[in-house]
Automatic annotation (TrEMBL):
It catalyses: D-fructose 6-phosphate + L-glutamine = D-glucosamine 6-phosphate + L-glutamate. Keywords: Aminotransferase, Cytoplasm, Glutamine amidotransferase, Repeat, Transferase. One of its GO terms (biological process) is fructose 6-phosphate metabolic process. Catalyzes the first step in hexosamine metabolism, converting fructose-6P into glucosamine-6P using glutamine as a nitrogen source. Residues 38-179, 212-354 form the SIS domain. The keyword Secreted does not apply. GO terms for molecular function: carbohydrate derivative binding; glutamine-fructose-6-phosphate transaminase (isomerizing) activity. Its EC number is 2.6.1.16. The active site is at K359. The chain holds residues 244 to 607 of 607 of the full protein. The keyword Cytoplasm applies. GO terms for cellular component: cytosol. Homodimer. This is Glutamine--fructose-6-phosphate aminotransferase [isomerizing].
């Protein structure tokens, strides 16, 4: 039931504050200021390396998790898309945790990669939204997301719930590794607990984003730029736009533009810049200015301080609430989802059932 929404995708975008709160509810103990996994006895102490494998949007959640695992737990992380992972003869040594992320828990490439990692002696952790799925059954450490059934083919709420679980997992891992003081853990818990309200504040910009849709709908190509954990958000924004509006889009690490893609910039290519205030902000803004200097039409997604600091020269800004960098990916996922959604509606495509795509890809 779509309720009073026009499409399942729209309903699922708007459900995110609630389902992320629901998911965090089983991973955080806010009063104690602690993260807690559903399987407390799982032993992280001997894990020396993490290998993350997934496809599509779930892979982008894994890319964000790589930053968190490395930053908080100081554990080396390798990440690959499932269809490449198995065939490159990955080195999987003792003490390795292989982490698979999947909404459906049935994606053929990811499942095959899981079995490959198991045969190579890795411990298997899975983040899945379908608790009865094949991947859930084959895991040593099952980490469910509580997004509820996701009907729209384009993944939205499952993605932000994956991020919520992965942040809690990274913090838990860091604590076991002795890399997190109780105060630091408490701060992480506090930031995560603030995510649902910040996501609500992001959703309040829906109409503004809808008003931008005609501009993007006219484009043949669209670029998305971000840095650090917001670089995967650029990839995710581009994927969402491609799959439901059929407009060609690419996400780039902002600093990589000048090594080639900047040649694409002209007045016909909208460039969506994802740049929350924080340690990487100034760098992203100087990459944005390189684009503007070449006539690029920039839409800046940032907070009030960021929008102010970035100055003039953008064609539009979308103001997000001020948030801690840890939760920025959960919050900034929303405007890129909404933009893709409204552009698809403006183009009249079949939003919930885009051409050539299936909800669950059970062939390799
Ligand atoms: C994008 C999308 C796909 C899936 C991918 C993996 O919106 O839905 O890219 O993310 O097919 O699916 P799961 O997560 O079910 O393994």
């Amino acid at each position: 039931d779509k309720g009073n929404h026009r499409h399942f995708m729209q309903k699922e975008i708007f459900e995110q504050p609630v389902v992320v709160a629901q998911t965090l509810g089983s991973y955080l103990r806010p009063l104690a200021g602690e993260v807690a996994l559903p399987i407390p006895e799982f032993d992280f102490a001997d894990i020396r390396r993490v290998t993350i494998v997934a496809c599509g949007t779930s892979f982008y959640a894994g890319m964000v998790a790589k930053y968190w695992f490395e930053r908080f737990a100081r554990v080396p992380v390798d990440i690959d898309v499932a269809s490449e992972f198995r065939y490159r003869e990955p080195v999987l040594e003792e003490g390795g945790l292989a982490l698979f992320i999947s909404q459906s828990g049935e994606t053929a490439d990811t499942l095959a990669a899981l079995r490959h990692a198991r045969a190579a002696g890795q411990k298997i952790a899975v983040v899945v939204n379908v608790p009865t799925s094949s991947m859930a059954r084959e895991a040593d450490l099952l980490l469910p997301t509580h997004a509820g059934p996701e009907i729209g083919v384009a993944s939205t709420k499952a993605f932000t719930c994956q991020l919520a679980v992965l942040a809690a997992l990274a913090a838990n891992f860091a604590r076991v590794k002795g890399r997190l003081t109780p105060d630091e853990e408490q701060a992480i818990v506090r930031h995560l607990a603030e995510a649902p309200a910040a996501m609500n504040a992001a959703l309040a910009h829906d109409e503004e984003i809808e008003a931008l849709a005609p501009l993007v709908a006219r484009a043949r190509d669209v670029l998305y730029l971000g840095r650090g954990p917001d670089y995967p958000m650029a990839l995710e924004g581009a994927l969402k736009l491609k799959e439901i509006s059929y407009i060609h889009a690419e996400g780039y690490a902002a600093g990589e533009m000048k090594h080639g893609p900047i040649a694409l910039i002209d007045e016909d290519v909208p460039v969506i810049v994802i740049a929350p205030s924080g340690p990487l902000f100034d760098k992203t803004v100087s990459n944005m200015q390189e684009v503007q200097a070449r006539g690029g039409k920039v839409v800046l997604i940032s907070d009030a301080a960021g929008i102010m600091a970035a100055g003039d020269g953008t064609i539009a800004t979308i103001e997000m609430p001020e948030v801690h960098p840890l939760i920025a990916p959960l919050v900034y996922a929303i405007p890129v989802q909404l933009l893709a959604y409204h552009v698809a509606v403006a183009k009249g495509t079949d939003v919930d059932q885009p051409r050539n795509l299936a909800k669950s890809v059970t062939v390799e």
